[in-house]
Amino acid sequence: MEKRVAILATNGFEESELQSPKEYLEQQGWTAEIVSPESGTIKSWTNGNWGKDFKVDRTVSEASASDYHALVLPGGVINPDLLRRDKKAVQLIKDFFEQKKPVAAICHGPQMLIEADVVDGRKITSFSSVKTDLINAGAEWVDEEVVVDNGLVTSRTPNDLPAFNKKMVEEIKEGKHELQRA
To answer: What residue stretches are annotated with the DJ-1/PfpI domain (predicted)?
Structure first.
C-alpha cells in the first residue's frame, strides 16, 4: 500500500537528514513531500556551509496531518530554531500526535517535539546538545542509535541514518499507534 509522508523543514536543515530519509521512503514506493513555511525552495546545510536547494511540495498552510501517514523532522541547528517560531508548523506536529500517526525526528529535530509539547514521559534520543532541553521537558533521554517509543522514532546524528530510516519505515508500516499521544 502506498504511503504519503510529510517531511517538515525550512532553510538550514541538515542535508543528509532530509535527503536520506526521503530517498529511503521513496525506495519503498511511497511519496515523501517536503512541507515548509516557505514556498519554492529551501536551502540545506552541509559540512558547515549552505548546501543544495530542495523543492517544497506544500506549504505548512496547505498541509494537513490527515493528508499523510507519517511525519519526518530532520535536524540541523538552524532548521528547528526557525520552525519552532512558526505556530502552524508546531500545530501540524501536534496534529500528527493527536491522530496517533508515526513521527520520526533526528539530531536537532526533537527540539520541535519540545515546542509541540509531546515529549513528557517519552523515551527519546537526540543530538547531545538537545539532551538537557528534552529532559527539562519531561523526556527520558538515552544515548542510543535509534529509539522507538509508541510510534515516535528518534536518532542522534547523520551516522545513525541507516538505523533511523529502517525503524521509521517499520513504524510507518505498522500504521497508527494507539499509545501515541499529544
So the answer is: 3-171
107 is catalytic: yes
Which helix (H) or strand (E) covers residue 104, if one does? strand 103-106
Mean residue pLDDT of the chain comes to: 96
Q: Which of 105, 107, 134, 146 is catalytic?
A: 107
Instruction: Tell the residue number behind the cell numbers 497508527, with chain if given.
Output: 176
What do you get for the CA distance between the two ends of the chain, in Å?
27
Sign of CA dihedral 57, 59, 61, 64: positive
pLDDT-derived band at 96 (thresholds 50, 70, 90) equals very high
d(CA 64, CA 53): 24
Q: How many CA atoms lie within 13 A of 142 on its CB side?
A: 13
The catalytically annotated residue of 3, 108, 167, 177 is 108
- Residue in 27, 125, 33, 110 with CA at minimum distance from that of residue 74: 110
> Is residue 173 annotated as a catalytic residue, yes or no?
no
